[in-house]
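Here is an idea for our session: we take a single protein and study its fold together. Start from the sequence, derive the backbone structure tokens from it, and show both lines together. Once you have written the record down, we can walk along the chain together:
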Amino acid sequence: MQPYCWQISLLWRTITMLRRFTALETIQKRWASVRAMVKIDESVNKQIETDELNPKRHPGIIKSRAMQLPEWIEKAMVEATADHPVKPLRKVAGILANYLKQRHPPLEKHEFVDKLTEVQELVSRKVDLSKLSNDEIDEFWKRNQYNVKIKLKQRVYAWVAVEYDAYKSLCYMLARGAQEYSVLYQIFNEIHLADKEFQPKALFDFGSGIGTVTWAASQFWITSLNEYYCVDSSGDMHRLAESIIANHPSKLKEVYFRQFLPSSARIKSDIVVSAFSLMELPNAQARLEVVLNLWMRTNNYLIIVEQGTNAGFRIVNEARDFVLDMSSKSLETDNPNPFHVFAPCPHDMICPRYIVDKTPCNFQSSYFTVSVGKQSELKKERYSYVVLKKGERPADDPQWPRLVRPSLVRSKHTMCRICTATGKLEEIVFTASKHGKPLYKCARHSDWGDKLPLQIIDPEEPASSD
């Protein structure tokens, strides 16, 4: 697995660099051009005109309500924390939550060398090393060894893997349980709304932790799912997850817990998930090996989720680019299958977000905090994700653009920032006079994460005869 994945990693990085340069030229040209023209989807327009559809509830709206943990989960959490003073437990949970939110992936070797070179140049900027002998240069670096070490420490993120014992697992449950459930519920809900005939039989969860993937998935496919395969390196996490899942009203039986990712991918699952787990791996090669393994064992949907920080988005986008490039070159060793990006992107091209600016492509879910030890509060969680689906993109998929930032609703106009099926970011100001009342009303009632039921009319392309 390792030599093969190493070759893929090199190929992926080279191809990605070339694609980014090409995309940059395209997007720069795009933003220099006239703003795109749009028109409402014909089928949606007809439904609105005949009063079959209210624009406030058009089919592009997918955001779910503020999520609260089911009663059986909160009851299990109360039982799990019964032997511990809740106040200090919640205090440590808050510290852990802040730490996880601020995490960065570990530096790669070449990144560390770049940082070291940068520090050495800073330390030696007042000395012309070219005029010194080799012995004098060695003496100079010996004298400044401590100075280099301190400055390097200030510039290099000290990544360490988080080891979860029984107490820290409880802290994680209080720190992250509610928001992870909310995020996963929203993602599964999007799949459920778009693919109503999908009836998965098996779910595979990498980095399963306290079992939030199983909690959320059972809310949608409890009748069809007959196997939940959970992988996490912490035995204490498994024990806590098992104690919570034991409280499920439907008494889930086929839930398996393993500490190691199986090397063989012969047994496939309909849904494969890595939720808030890739950040725990020591380098890019380890992450890509896991993504490759997960992709090989996927029958239908592969879901990658991380926190909605720049660091989290980079990891999600790394996985997305890797699968896109790997599959486009038919490097899958079993039976190569076509696939497409199901969500959030309406396209299979390179993500334009970092080419336009330095902010992550993320989304937001609302949730009520865990009420163990204190009153529940309404909060919001930002996350980055990608859902990859095996199989050709359906011919009737309208590929409606996705709102990638909050809508700005003002008097008589609404500004929407969207990602389109052509792999471009557009900023469109909707008015009733210019775009018509149906589309204007749809835009006013759509927000961050929703889709807009419209088609882009590229001004660079010749107008159609009709």
